[in-house]
Amino acid sequence: MSLKLESHQESVLEELMQKSFGAQNIYIPQNYKKGEKKHKEKEPCDLAWFGNGVLVLFYLTSGNKSLEKQDEHNLKQARKWIHYWRHQSNQKLNGINRFGDSVSISFKEINYCVLLSVVSHSTGIVFHKVAKNKPYGYTCTIPESLIHAISGFHGTVVDLLDLIYKYSSNPRRAILNHNPLGDERLSILIKKKQQDLDSILKLRHDSSLNENDFSFIYEMINLNRLPAPIGDRLVSNSSGRELISSYFADMTARDFIHIAILAEGLIKRTDNAKFSVAGETKGMHLNWIICATSFSSRNMMEYVEPIIKQASERNMPLLVYAYTFEFTDYRSPSMYALPPKRNKSQSEHLVSLTTQRLSIAFSM
Fold first, then answer.
1. Range list of H helices, the chain
2. Do 12 and 148 form a contact (C-beta atoms < 8 A)?
3. How far is Cα 145 from Cα 151, in angstroms, rounded to an integer?
4. Which of 108, 161, 114, 117 is nearest to 138 (CA)?
5. Model pLDDT, residue 35
6. 3-class DSSP assignment, residue 139
7. N or C: the chain end with fewer CB closer than 10 Å?
8. Three-state SS string across 30-80, please?
9. pLDDT-based confidence at residue 273 (cuts at 50, 70, 90)
10. Strand pairing of 126-131 and 277-280?
11. Cis preceding-peptide flag for 229 (omega within 30 of 0)
C-alpha cells in the first residue's frame, strides 16, 4: 500500500516512510478538530513514530523562509498540539502506516516524547527544551538533509535518535543556537555511521556486493513489514503481531545487518538442510539467537528444543529458519520466540540518556 503525504516539501518524510526498516511504526497522522464544527481541522504533526512508549513527532517547513521562521512555524504547531492533547482526555493521536495499519495513541500511553522541527536549511542539531517530567524527552531542530541521509542507508528512527544522542555529547554548544559549525559536525557523525555499516557488510565476503545495497536484508529477514505478511501467518491475533513489531521497530540498520548476515551464514552451514545449527548476534542493544533447521535435519528434535529453552532462560529473542516443504521460502523465518521479560527498549534508552544530558546542560 502506498500512502502519499500531501505537500511537496513533506516528500522528505515520505522517503523515510518508504525506505526505513522500521516503517511499520511510522504513521501519517489524521487531522483533529478543536471543539465545535466551526473550527477548522488541524494537523497534529507531519509524521509520527511510536513504539514501546516512545513517541517522535516530526514537524517540517520548507521553502524560502529563513531558518528562524521555519523553526518558529514548526515549534508553534508542536506546542499547540501537545497542549491540546495533554488537556483533552478523550483526544487520541490517530494515524496510519504505509501498510494500512492504524494506531490510536492516548497521551497517557507516552513515557518519552521527542519533538523534531525539520528545516530545509543547513544546520546542526539545536536543542530548544527538555521535559523533566513524564513524558520525558526533548525538543530540537534537525536539517532535512539528516532525514535524507538516514533514508539513504535504509536507517530507522532509532538511528536518528542515536545520532541525536551522539550529537548531544557537547550540548551547551547546541542549546538555542544554530552553530555554523554544527552542520559539519553532524556530517562527520553521519559519515561514521555509514562507514560502520559498510565495514559490517564486508563481512559477507561478496565481491559483487554494492556497499549501498541492503536488499539482501529484506530477503533474509523479510520483516520490514510487520504485522504482515509473515506476522499474519505466524500470529493469529493483532496483539501478538503488535508485540513482534515492537521488537523489530526498535532496531537500527546496524542491528538488521547483523541479524541478516548471521542468518545467511547459518543457513549455508546447514549442508543442504541435513543438520541444524544456531548462533547469536553480538554488540546489539538486545542480542538475538538465530537457528537454521528443517524437518529433514538429522538432529532437529534434539537440537531445536533446547535452543528455544535457552533463549527463554537467557531472556533473548529467537528466530528459527526452517525448511518444511519444497515450495517454502527457506530464507524467511518460520518461528519467533520472544523473551518472557522486556527490558528497556533501545529507543527508550537513547531518549533517556539524551534527556539526562540536556537536563544538566539546561540547568548550568
1. 11-19, 67-87, 144-152, 157-167, 182-201, 215-221, 230-234, 238-248, 253-269, 300-313, 346-363
2. yes
3. 10
4. 114
5. 66
6. strand
7. C
8. CCEECCCCCCCEECCCCEEEEECCEEEEEEEECCCCCHHHHHHHHHHHHHH
9. low
10. unpaired
11. yes
